[in-house]
Design a protein that fits this description.
This protein is α/β, with parallel strands linked by helices. 51% of the residues lie in helices and 13% in strands. Helix 10 links the parallel strand 5 and strand 6. The chain is elongated, with a radius of gyration of 21 Å. Strands 3-2-4-1-5-6-7-8 form an 8-stranded mixed beta sheet, with helices on both faces. Helix 2 runs antiparallel to helix 3 and helix 10 packs parallel to helix 11. It contains 12 helices and 8 strands.
């Protein structure tokens, strides 16, 4: 009998986060072995966790939890890992929220993010998931700056059976989105996913275009977009915090998808983002295939980042 999908994904997740876990657990082991816990160790532990991109607030809470009732006592690396996992899960639990589709037809999903975050590939994976649920899907190739993005989305449309609305490179993105939404309403499409140009969050003109796309969508359906998903690349570390802040101001981000958790030592940044912004985390990605994008499960992520088996 083959393994069920969640177990397969858990294996990929724990494997993908191995570098993140190793960066934390190796430093923790070096710290706590052959020493009794004291104020200096707690401070060093906090610094280890901050270096792992967990964020200052989370690092302070974890260090305090480790110290609680344990001064002048020996503490094992296993004890620290268990506390780390439990505290991280407390932060992530409230934001581990599935992407729920409302009765809106079409349910409009606007996908945003910087260049290289894996945005267009993530859209293709989402289309595949919705198609597997027997939902009709339409994709709008509004990343008109890159011919490759238009081509990539067209290929995903063919793979998933989704209709694709596209024009040539350099076309006006907002008018393309308008046409796509009108067509989706006319054809009774259930889910409309809009790709957007991978823009740097600090480029004013491009962010202005994103605002225009949102305005155009609202002209057709004042309740849309129903979800604004920000795709984040785990490998960028602290810069992801700036991206969440700026895209939230411009496009009203409603949820997050974090990609490229495989093979990075900076997976802890997801914890810092959750603690600071409390935005729903819908999916995480640990590879290139459709199966490598899965709903976010706080317990599994916390265990993986602490290097625990589950």
């Amino acid at each position: 009998m083959s393994e069920d999908a969640p177990r397969v994904f858990w294996r990929r997740l724990s494997g993908g986060l191995r570098r993140t876990a190793a960066a934390i657990t190796t430093a923790v082991s070096d710290l706590v072995n052959k020493r009794k816990l004291d104020a200096a160790m707690v401070e060093e532990l906090e610094e280890v966790l901050i270096r792992a991109d967990l964020g200052t607030a989370t690092a302070a809470r974890i260090a305090a939890a480790v110290a609680d009732g344990r001064y002048d006592k020996a503490i094992s690396p296993a004890d620290v890992k268990a506390i780390l996992s439990a505290e991280v899960e407390k932060v992530l639990g409230p934001v581990a929220v599935p992407l729920a589709l409302s009765a809106a037809k079409p349910f409009v999903v606007l996908v945003v993010g910087v260049n290289g975050s894996g945005k267009t590939t993530t859209i293709g994976k989402l289309a595949a998931k919705f198609a597997a649920e027997r939902r009709s899907v339409m994709l709008v190739a509004a990343d008109t700056f890159r011919a490759a993005a238009i081509e990539q989305l067209t290929i995903w449309g063919e793979r998933t059976g989704a209709a694709v609305v596209a024009r040539g490179p350099g076309s006006d993105a907002a008018s393309l989105v308008f046409d796509g939404l009108v067509a989706a309403r006319r054809d009774g499409i259930e889910v409309l996913i809009v790709d957007t140009a991978g823009r740097l969050h600090n480029k004013t003109a491009l962010m202005g275009e994103l605002e225009k796309i949102v305005r155009v969508i609202k002209k057709v359906d004042p309740t849309a977009p129903h979800a604004v998903l920000l795709v984040l690349d785990a490998t960028v570390g602290q810069n992801a915090l700036n991206q969440v802040e700026e895209f939230s101001k411009t496009a009203g981000v409603t949820g997050l998808i974090m990609t490229k958790l495989d093979g990075t030592a900076r997976g802890g940044i997801l914890v810092a983002i959750a603690d600071r912004f409390a935005l729903p985390i819908h999916f995480i990605g640990v590879g290139e295939s459709v199966e490598d994008l899965a709903p976010f499960v706080a317990h599994d992520f916390a265990a993986a980042i602490a290097g625990l088996e589950t």
